[in-house]
Fold these 2 entries.
Entry 1:
Amino acid sequence: MRIWYLTTKLTILDAVNATELSEFCETKCNGLNGGYFAFEGDCCRFIVCQLTQSRFGPGQYIGYNQTCMYPLVWDDEIGACNDAKNVEGCTEDCHTPPEPTPFVTQYVVKNASRMLLKQPCI
């Protein structure tokens, strides 16, 4: 079984969502430094909660809305993004498939190791 660990990208939050996420994290993480939680109703997204540090005492919780990389979905059992076939009730349909990569980019990535070997050592 192949497991993919937290290869994600951040999504931009507006002020209302940030407040709601902080309140969500306060409820879920009371007494903890933070955690990872499923995003209700969307298999592709999850919430990261983090307790901030403060020199004046306990900090506050901040919530981050994150998205698993295509074609992975959130697996609450392992606390990470995983193949959709390994997560009951989820499919990769929650993602918008990425645009195909142009040939030039594929060529550069494919041949990057050979290109690096031709570079002089400094």
Note: The helical segments are 15-28, 103-110, 112-118.
Entry 2:
Amino acid sequence: MQRGGKQEMTLSQQLLFLKSNPVVGGSGEVSRHKLTWTTQVQPTPLARDYTVRLILKESETPDVFVDNPSLTELAGDREIPHVYLNPLRLCLYLPGTGEWHGSKRLDQTIIPWTFLWLFYFEDWLATDDWKGGGKHPGEVAEPKGNRENRRRVARL
């Protein structure tokens, strides 16, 4: 399927890029029109390790779940910023803006953005101040500096 003039990658192509990227690590499979990738993420050398699961269904947008440790338990009674609920998954980009679509590689977008989200989450746990920027549909636009940071990380 084409979106925005570019051919969407197949799930198998996405899996191949994830497996061949020496920085990403992890393991996964494609089964029943769904890619599942599990990896360990440590956003900084002093941060805790997170077990992260990425799911991409054919012709859909990716979902990222933190399986361990529980973000809810870490947050205590605070509402976790920039997540989608039911089930809890990370809000990494604003859908419909072209920041991510099926022609973009998961290993160069979603995975680095997950590291960045968890970096800001660790900071938020300590300071109670979300510095990761971003917005949800209907919110006021974010400063461009945060989008530029995500793009810089994606190029690494």
Note: Strands lie at 2-3, 6-7, 27-31, 34-41, 50-57, 63-68, 83-84, 89-90.
